[in-house]
């Protein structure tokens, strides 16, 4: 059968759980047959019904069943349904994007907001053209605030996501070098990320802006801004202690918040969360408790003590900007023995060689740090620098198993595709 979005929405109101994978198909849900490079959800349409799905949205005309709704494009329909649902909502929708720190900031904002409100928040890093609609469609009638993370690796993607989500509050954590291949350079990144500000401004909403970031201040001119930073803003803070995890002193409250985050570069992420919570009138004692109890996961800014070493694990993703701040923090740390195990950065295109050379040069200039490099890009540029490189994380693991590291502070960082976390068991 076929139907328009308004009709499909009436079905959604009675079956408000959305499934896109039969391995996690929930009885009573609506199953959307999405397609990718190596899969076609239409092939699982009947299986989804057998597993208990109430209805299936498919775009294969050959599938015939009274519970299968045929549309021109299942993904587009998912996005249209999410957008239609969004238009029925009268709650704050906080959009978050940025080159680095957006997922950590999202988690911190969620941690503080949920001390007072019923919050729906993007799960994991489901922040793309599929993840954003799924987040919106998980908003229920009792939801008071929603936090929607938005990621992009090509020009214009944030514009598309904002058209679906219509955020009325916005955060850009920063704008740096990432996915250069897809953006064609930093200017493409700036234009794409700024789309979140433009969307919030159009909705006459509020922006939360890091006052230490001159680019963000410039891009946010002409609208209502809640500032945070180290010098100017309603929330002003500074690093009180950097090791082993960071503590932040908040000026106006004259209080110190002890966190479980590693890395001074997390300061703006923490201050942003406090600024958002302050705007939504959450008591500072609740903010302080929530930030103290937040535990980083998913290989992001984690300090892990193994049987033999301390490992600073930041291996969920890597780009030139995040790599730079992580290495700077690592070099600054006052440790007797420091070992860096650094993996390739992905999606840099024509900029890849020069960006990897910059990273390798930092360790050549700091020979007191024992450095190892993992991935084909680093292996390609290691021209007799007497530095150890491995093509894969498996090769690195095998090496460290036979050449164990002991009593060291280890930086483990690289792009997700390099699987740096698989080295952890031998450290």
List the helices and strands and how they pair.
Blueprint: H1 5-14, E1 18-19, E2 30-32, H2 45-50, E3 55-58, E4 68-70, H3 74-87, E5 93-97, H4 102-113, E6 119-121, H5 131-136, E7 145-149, H6 157-165, E8 169-172, H7 180-183, H8 186-202, E9 206-210, H9 214-219, E10 225-229, E11 235-241, E12 247-250, E13 255-258, H10 267-279, H11 284-293, E14 302-305, E15 310-314, H12 320-332, E16 338-343, H13 352-364, E17 370-374, H14 376-381, E18 388-390, H15 393-402, E19 409-413
Parallel strand pairs: 1-2, 2-3, 3-4, 5-7, 5-8, 6-7, 8-9, 9-10, 10-11, 15-19, 16-17, 16-19, 17-18
Antiparallel strand pairs: 11-12, 12-13, 14-15
Q: Brief overview, please?
A:
The chain is of the alpha/beta class. The protein contains 15 helices and 19 strands.
Structure explained in plain terms:
- By secondary structure, the chain is an alpha/beta fold.
- The strands form three sheets. A nine-stranded mixed β-sheet has the order 6-7-5-8-9-10-11-12-13, sandwiched between helices.
- The radius of gyration is 23 Å and the shape is globular.
- Helix 13 links the parallel strand 16 and strand 17 (370-374).
- The model has no long low-confidence stretch (mean pLDDT 92).
- It is 35% helix and 19% strand.
